[in-house]
Write a structure and sequence with these properties.
alpha/beta; 6 helices; three-stranded mixed sheet
Length: about 260
């Protein structure tokens, strides 16, 4: 399949799942109605300069003037394996030097990028003392390591991108299991990750940071556990419930970041 077709399919699926979740009960849609955003309290929003605040209106991202904003960018994952082993041994400074150089190189070459999909790579949050269970799985997740490197690596890299006018879409560590279910350990894992991220004072209500709830979900169990799959309404209904629990945690923390 042509790469452009694959990319368009990815965007469609991502927008489908995200649009299925809501802060409240879904209203009847009539064209492009504005999405109501609760007022933020003073001090709740990190100051990142003149970066336009985006909102979802209908199926578009729009700035505060009402103009449609199209995001064009790239993905970054902070694993040595995907970066020619440029650094090792959990070398934060080495990782940041390499990835800042990639951002600056693209901008200096004239690439008009305005967003980066930033993977909170499990290389940093996995407990290396535990046996590996699954490629980029959540089974070895260490909350203490995640908090440490969120502060030391992921947040500084998000700030670096924002300072250059680049929006950041944060992706959770790793990939989804082949089959997930509402309320399973992976659902709990994602709720934990976004609970931590959405409370971080430099990320909560940061207009330059958006949240991607899950990476590459494939199959989901039905409510009665009798079937698993995708592509049917019964599975979409379960995926909505699965994601809504994560959205609720983020919103309960007072974070209004785009999802």
């Amino acid at each position: 399949m042509h790469m452009k077709t694959l990319w368009n399919l990815f965007l469609f699926l991502a927008l489908f799942v995200v649009s299925s979740c809501s802060d409240d009960k879904m209203p009847e849609e009539s064209g492009e109605s504005d999405v109501e955003t609760p007022e933020e309290k003073p001090g709740d929003t990190p100051d990142i300069g003149n970066m336009p605040k985006l909102s979802v209106v209908g199926r578009y991202l729009r700035n505060e003037e009402g103009d449609i904003v199209n995001l064009h960018g790239f993905a970054m994952t902070f694993s040595p394996f995907f970066n020619q082993n440029t650094w090792g041994d959990y070398d934060v400074d080495g990782c940041m030097r390499h990835n800042k150089k990639q951002i600056d190189g693209m901008l200096s070459a004239g690439w008009r990028v305005n967003f980066v999909r930033m993977h909170l790579d499990p290389y940093w949050s996995d407990d290396p003392a535990l046996p590996s269970v699954r490629y980029e799985g959540h089974e070895r997740f260490s909350e203490s390591r995640f908090r440490k490197y969120l502060d030391e690596l992921f947040v500084p890299m998000a700030e670096y991108a924002n300072e250059r006018g680049i929006y950041v879409v944060m992706r959770p560590p790793g990939v989804s299991p082949d089959t997930i279910a509402v309320g399973d350990d992976y659902n709990d894992f994602l709720i934990k990750v976004w609970d931590i991220v959405s409370q971080h004072p430099k990320l909560k209500n940061n207009k330059g940071v958006m949240f991607e709830l899950a990476n590459e979900p494939i199959n989901i169990m039905t409510a009665d556990g009798s079937r698993c799959g995708s592509g049917e309404q019964i599975f979409y209904d379960q995926m909505k419930i699965f994601c809504q629990a994560i959205v609720d945690k983020i919103r309960d923390n007072g974070a209004r970041n785009l999802i």
